[in-house]
Amino acid sequence: MGESFLARLNRGLARARAGLGERLANLLQGHPAVDDEFFDDLEELLIQSDLGMNLSATLVDELRAYAKKERRASGEEITRRLESRLTELLDGQSHALQLAPQGVSVILLAGVNGSGKTTTAGKLAWRFTQAGRRVIMCAADTFRAAAIDQLVIWGERVGAQVVHHQEGADPAAVVFDAVSAALARKADVLIVDTAGRLHTKSNLMQELAKVTRVIGKGIPGAPHETLLVVDATTGMNGLEQARIFQEATGVTGLVLTKLDGTARGGIVVTISHSLHIPVKLIGVGEQVDDLQDFDAGAFVSAILRPH
Amino acid sequence: MFESLTEKLQQAFQKLRGKGKLTAADVDVALREVRLALLEADVNYKVVRDFVARIREQAVGEEVMQSLTPAQQVIKIVHTELIHLLGDRPVTLSFAPNPPTIILLAGLQGSGKTTTAAKLAKLYKQRGHSPLLVAADVYRPAARKQLQILGDQIGVAVYTEEGQDAPGITARAVGEARRSGHDLVIVDTAGRLHVDEELMAELERMKNAVHPHAILLVVDAMTGQDAVNLATAFHDRVGVAGIILTKLDSDARGGAALSLRAVTGRPVMFVGTGEKLDGLEPFYPDRMASRLLGMGDILTLIDRAQARVSAEKAAEMERKLRQAQLTLDDFLDQLEQVRSMGPLGDILSMLPGMNKLGLKNLEVDERSLAHVEAIVRSMTREERQNPAIIDASRRRRIARGSGTSVQDVNRLLKQYEETRKLLRQFAAKGARGRGFKLPF
Question: Mutating which of A113, A151, A303 best tests the B interface, going by the most B Cβ atoms within 10 A?
């Protein structure tokens, strides 16, 4: 799966490679000299990948110190060191989805508006139905017009049942029904799609916390995964999003969507590093099977060596 | 919006303000902070580099150094350059001499095109136009239904067809608009990545099918460094007339607004705030720049108030606020007016000096306002005019009447008292010429 991820990601990134990656590659090949320009280029590459000013500067300072100590270090060695540092920052915890040892596993999807929750719900359901699991999806986005229809269409497409109420219904009530249905129908996986909400709206964050409590009451230990869906184009605001969603519901993992564009999604490095939330899945396309497991090493290579 | 950048720039300028005269080194120190702040605000790397260079060129000039208040001059230069970078003057849609005017909304998946289409239709309907919405997102499941529901909510007709022929649907929609006399056609297109050759070609075909008067790019305010890539790609391919920045009610610093204009040369025309369908406002570069520098966005607030509050009521209220004579009736009245202006958190963030007053993290729960209303409505007229007479037995009655608890009533009375105190402080500060003073 790592191979295929890398291939796909690189196909996306290759189209945007023109600037930085190429310059870095040229630097590595043509000019083995490790000078100020080399480090400035590295810093620029990291910032342009949305790692943020602070983390980028810290990492590059570390590398400068290393280069000073190891006077003979080549650009290639330094890049490899950066690669391993970034992988380290991303790799603290398990990237595998946590499921219930027995009974229903509940996966809750949350995030800001337009990050790709409903599409991720559909793709995730597909992954489980393909593996022969019985999947129920819960349409807890009762706010956005036609969000319920969107999930119902996904349900038909991937062979999963969808529990829903009317638009404008109380999300906690829909979730309560979905939990009961999952238990009664002996489902293996319950995927809950919630409404997009900006983390700055405290009443909506409380609503999300309530949804989580309702799930926990129906199935002790659930939700087994609370995944924050983050758009790869997200800038520095992603950190604040993750922090506030984590406070409200205890986020257990990230889904990084829309990685098939030119955005590199570097904000997840900052989120993983600052809040210790692992990336679990990545979305790399429009097809139903374009949701893949996260591989830190491959992800870092794609940022630093876009070829 | 933009609060964090404001704070950072203020910190950077604090150091400038502390000194009487400036050296080139001083300017450099401040500009390093400006650069950091802008990068953390998601302004594109290259845009920041150019911006800082331009400021340095102007600030380290002799004229500035020899002036009496160099710090103020540097701030002024940064302010002016920010306005310049944001586009100098507000730009809005121009209508075609021969109707209908055709507007096409394009952008990445999830940037907010469908919601924005409805908001735009509502805005122009209010201005006396007759818009037709076109549901041309033929890929996302239920996208067409979403637009239909929104159209129903605002009373605007929606043209839609089954099938995958987006250019054909758009062309037939324009024909329909001509027949039924709509003067504005707003086309909601499918979200597409700027590197998706197939979908970009489709967008091109839609353009060629109807020759829209303007293609507007819809961009999420939370977008990071990639904003520049996507805007350039869309602009190169189909020609973008303007930009709509959405989700500006997040706490994203929104640096994308700065870079988009800089790299495409196209103006930001509107900003989207909130999920309600009247949350679309024109984009004012000068106001935004003032806001970036912590001067508050009092102009937007005045605009909103004027649109929704009668002049006499406002004058009456201002008198009461100044004298800190606020009865519970006024409190209720004010709540209703303020609510009609938008989310409270938004409004507070526009007031100058709010950050300094420690009200930055003031959370306003809109739902609790409904409780407040119920409680006040359960009071007698006498009680509202003179809350001091509300004793324990009256409190119990009010709680029963409003379906709340005595604790809730107590809390409200306490809040009311605190608000009065705060107003008295403001009034006092105002009298001494401080408080709401602008930072310059």
Answer: A113
pTM score of the predicted model: 0.78
The pLDDT of residue A255 is 97
Structural domains for chain A: 5-90 (1.20.120.140), 105-295 (3.40.50.300)
Identify the residue with better confidence: A226 or A25: A226
Distance separating alpha carbons of residues B188 and B185, to the nearest angstrom: 10
The answer to whether the CB of B349 falls within 8 A of the CB of B437 is no
Domains of chain B listed by start with CATH number: 3-86 (1.20.120.140), 101-295 (3.40.50.300), 310-431 (1.10.260.30)
pLDDT digits (tens, 9 = 90+) for A92-119: 778 899 999 999 999 999 999 999 999 9
Check whether B308 has a pLDDT greater than 60.
Answer: no
Residues in chain A within 8 Å Cβ distance of B194: 261-262
Interface of B with A in 19-38 (CB under 8 A): 36
| Helices and strands: H and E segment counts in chain B | 20, 8
Number of other CB atoms surrounding residue B54 within 10 Å: 15
Q: What percent of chain B is modeled with pLDDT above 70? A: 70
Nearest CB neighbour to A235, from listed B148, B222, B230: B222
Report the pLDDT value the prediction gives residue B342, as an integer from 0 to 100: 60
